[in-house]
Write a structure and sequence with these properties.
The chain has 326 residues and is an alpha/beta fold. The protein contains twelve helices and eleven strands.
């Protein structure tokens, strides 16, 4: 008697760094609770985040031509699709594949109400809970084991740093989520531990302004995605704005201080560290009636004061950092 074929499943999430990492519980739980062969469709930029994941059979890359992508995916003969992105491109792909599809409920209306009306109907509903709800119909349940990020055992690096250091993540895609330069410099000067700056090439100027005249080591724009992840893994503490590196730190179970500006923890994108709640802290200005003013970030403060970041108390951040380091 022949063995029943494992069901072949395609998960779709195109971007970004944080969201790819935040989908990892879905991969783990589906793999451990179902007899499936898991495939993942994403952009080439984010493929390194999935390259060493033992729960994945194969990663597919989104081509410039969606028609070519669809053609390649059709050849796989998937049994069903999990759409964790749910945008125009993902809908076009799932429609073309013609397979049973389970799509995330982004709760877009509730997020809009929170941003524009300050009406909180999310009530702490985390994005991971929304991802996991997508596969509940398949009998897959949350295991509360947190996020996964699997790194290569060896990572060649071209820089030398001491064994004891903390990471300060510099810059995000949106100005109103950035830790201000003055606050970053004050944090560095108030801590005795060595501070290593990491971030993208586009934030080199900002990093230079932060590091200038301080003891910080500036590696912004000099490390790959996985090299940055290795630096986080080996650090004693991570301080990060609301960005992808924050979620990488959470996946690696590192002591973490997450600093929020124009976005807010109530939107559901906090560090996901169940069973490790004592290893992270959230810093945000909860007294402002204008927060959150966006669900993703802005290029400028609509009120022109940027008090969500400018009014944060450095001493609170430093005291929490010292408690984690010690």
């Amino acid at each position: 008697m022949s063995k029943t074929r494992r069901e072949k499943v395609l998960l779709i999430r195109f971007s970004s760094i944080g969201d790819i990492v935040l989908t990892s519980p879905v991969l783990r739980c589906m793999s451990e609770q179902m007899d499936v062969e898991l495939h993942y469709l994403t952009k080439k930029t984010y493929a390194p985040l999935l390259a060493h994941n033992p729960y994945l059979h194969r990663t597919h890359l989104l081509d410039n031509s969606i028609s070519d992508t669809i053609k390649n995916l059709k050849a796989e003969s998937f049994d069903f699709v999990i759409d964790l992105h749910k945008n125009i491109r993902s809908k076009k792909i799932v429609t073309a594949l013609g397979r049973k599809t389970y799509s995330i409920n982004k709760r877009s209306v509730d997020r809009w109400l929170l941003v524009h009306m300050k009406l909180d109907r999310l009530q702490g509903n985390h994005i991971v809970d929304r991802y996991m709800s997508t596969v509940h119909a398949l009998g897959v349940q949350t295991d509360n084991k947190g996020l996964d990020l699997f790194l290569p055992l060896k990572q060649s690096i071209s820089y030398t740093i001491p064994d004891r250091y903390m990471i300060l993540v510099v810059g995000t895609k949106h100005l109103t989520k950035n830790i201000p330069i003055t606050l970053a410099r004050e944090i560095i000067s108030s801590l005795s531990i060595l501070v290593v700056l990491i971030g993208g090439q586009e934030h080199k100027e900002m990093a230079h302004a932060i590091a200038d005249g301080t003891k910080a080591i500036d590696l912004v724009g000099q490390t790959s995605l996985l090299e940055s992840a290795h630096l986080i893994k080996n650090s004693n503490l991570v301080i990060s704005p609301d960005t992808g590196m924050m979620h990488i730190a959470a996946a690696l179970k590192k002591p973490l201080i997450a600093i929020y500006g124009s976005t807010a923890s109530s939107l559901g994108f906090t560090p996901y560290m169940p069973r490790n709640e004592d290893r992270y802290a959230i810093i945000e200005n909860s007294s402002l009636s204008c927060r959150p003013c966006t669900k993703m970030g802005r290029n400028s403060c609509p009120k022109k004061h940027f008090n969500c970041m400018n009014d944060l108390d450095c001493n609170t951040i430093v005291e929490k950092a010292r408690s984690f380091i010690d």
